Amino acid sequence: MSVSNFIPELWSKRINQKLRESLVFGSVVNTDYEGEIGSGGDTVKINSIGDVTIGNYVPNSTNITPEQLNDYQTTLLIDQKKYFAFKVDDVDKAQVNANVMDEAMQSAAWGLKNAADESIAALYTDAGNTITTTAIDSTNAFAAVLTLGQYLSQENVPEDGRWLVVPPWFKTKLLLAKALVTDNGAAADAFTNGKVGRVGGFDLYESNNISNDGTTYYIMAGTRKAISFAAQVNKVEAYRPEASFSDAVKGLYVYGTKVVYPDALAVLTATVGSEP
């Protein structure tokens, strides 16, 4: 199918870019094992050790015997495979006089990352800390944020690097409550990739990819250590389809994601409350 919208007599040299949401969840997870994957179906073995026992020492009395470390292993399965494929007719390329291929590649790249973003957001079911369904309005939004922080602190989760991802309506509630700090004196580009400010000890991010059923939203908070993500663009091939005069590109993207520290992840089940 040709790019049928490019028919008018006057052709613009520019492509009208679509409005695209910020991809947030991919920026709040760790990618420590990304360099170890090769293709879809690969597995990454993540090794961890248990706590080291601390004992009392009495000079000239205590006989120190080293303990055997306890270790355990988590498997990160690279089980998600996504692809794209499109073509641009030679006639369209000549008429448009613009780089349609580049814009299409950008669209494909965003689409692949968006699919991964949604997969990470769906991991709320593996959170170790949950807050039951709450109708959120401006009177209790900040309290809900503080409760998320409390749950993480009770699990000894470090305060440094904590993040919270909320839907746009939740950010509005925090603004109405005057709880959101949107200017911390940092550089003008400090708030990027959906980051909108600080609240209750969290870096606050806004996203439309939060898992929801249209009424109930599953809002996650945690640290980068909570979720591991590994992805790789395995193949990108340009070719000339035999049945048409066109350039075509296809690509394969593989990834996997897993909650490796459930205690470092908290989820608030929330609905939109009415304002008083």
- How far apart, in Å, are the first and last alpha carbons? 54 Å
Q: Strands of the largest sheet, in order across it? A: 4-11-8-5-7-6
**Regions with little confidence, pLDDT below 50 for 5+ residues:** 185-190
Please summarize the sheet with the most strands: 6 strands, mixed
Proper CATH architecture: Alpha-Beta Complex
Helicity, as a percent range: 10-25%
Coarse morphology: flat
Q: How many domains in all?
A: 1
* CATH top level class name: Alpha Beta
User: How many DSSP H or I helices?
Assistant: 4
Helix-strand makeup class: alpha+beta
Spell out the helices and strands N to C: EEEHHEHEHEEEEEE
Beta-strand residue fraction: 25-35%
Number of strands: 11
- The CATH topology assignment is phage-related protein like fold
Please tell me the overall pLDDT: 84
Compute the CA-based radius of gyration: 24 Å
Describe this entry's structure for a reader:
The chain is an alpha+beta fold. It has a single domain (20-276), classed as phage-related protein like fold (Alpha-Beta Complex). Helices cover 19% and strands 32% of the residues. The chain is built from four helices and eleven strands, in the order βββααβαβαββββββ. The protein has helices at 90-96, 100-121, 141-154, 168-176, and strands at residues 43-49, 71-77, 80-89, 129-136, 163-166, 195-199, 202-206, 217-222, 227-239, 246-259, 265-272. The chain has a six-stranded mixed sheet. It has a three-stranded antiparallel sheet with strand order 3-10-9. Strands 1-2 form a two-stranded antiparallel ribbon. β6 (195-199) and β7 form a beta hairpin. The relative contact order is 0.24. Mean pLDDT is 84; it is low at 185-190.
